[in-house]
Design goal:
The chain has a single domain, classed as Rossmann fold. The protein is built from 7 helices and 13 strands. The strands form 3 sheets. The protein has a 9-stranded mixed sheet with strand order 3-5-12-11-6-7-9-8-10. Strands 1-2 form a two-stranded antiparallel sheet. The chain has a two-stranded antiparallel sheet with strand order 4-13. Strand 11, helix 6 and strand 12 form a beta-alpha-beta unit. It is globular, with a radius of gyration of 18 Å. The N and C termini lie far apart (37 Å).
Amino acid sequence: MTDFDSNQLDLPTEFSLPGPSRLAYSSHTPAASAKGRSNPPSNGAKNPGPAKSTAAAKSTAEPTATSKTLSAHQLNRGDAVEWLRSLPSASIDLVVTDPPYESLEKHRAVGTTTRLKKSKASSNEWFQIFANERFPELFSEVFRVLKKDRHFYLFCDQETMFVAKPLAEAAGFKFWKPIVWDKKKIGMGYHYRARYEFVLFFEKGKRKLNDLGQPDVIEVPRVYRGYPTEKPAGVAEVLVRQSTQAGELVIDPFMGSGSTGVAALKLGRRFLGCDIADEALKLSSERLANASVELP
């Protein structure tokens, strides 16, 4: 077994993390990661997935380096909503996340996805869904942990958009618009093959985007033969660059393979991520292990 140590990060003074803990992973590295998003199965869910952790979210972070170059990320294992509840209010600068929305079960049931119990591309386990009925508690916690005048981006499909938008607004967010991620290549479906996904753009308070010339269509090729529903880091880079400044704190409560973290660290931001699957934690740790940021 290979252990990854958790170390206290030098985060902003108003943000205090729990003490160190250890989380063990198998040293075996598979071809690709299951998305393994953080959520317990809803009643009657077809895909039971891994058991929900009832304990506080465990964490793993890379060691702190010398001088001002810090390992500015920490990865946590646990249910997404429970993990958010462990974070202080008004402590986060940006949330970018991609829950395994409920409509994915419909696609699996009628065979419009090749990734059933196993991904044909990666041979990894498919993840369990995050039920629509849990969106109110998710949005409530995201709103609470965000600082004033901050943004929230939610990846979803056209069906989930109509469910999520009013629930996020009820939690206090202002909805601006759906951003379109153009995958450049067609994907699943029968009635006009899918080539895009939505990213819903929400705001708490009022914050000006860094580049007002950025279009609302982000053209980044989809990941071919990657992890189930993996999002390319290039999409998250646009969102992180638009809505944060260097040194600010970005989180993803359904981090999967860690693409949001890759984007955040590349742009000089700090990152906290959570997922319920050990596989996702292991691969995200490996992916972000050498990342560091020059703090302002």
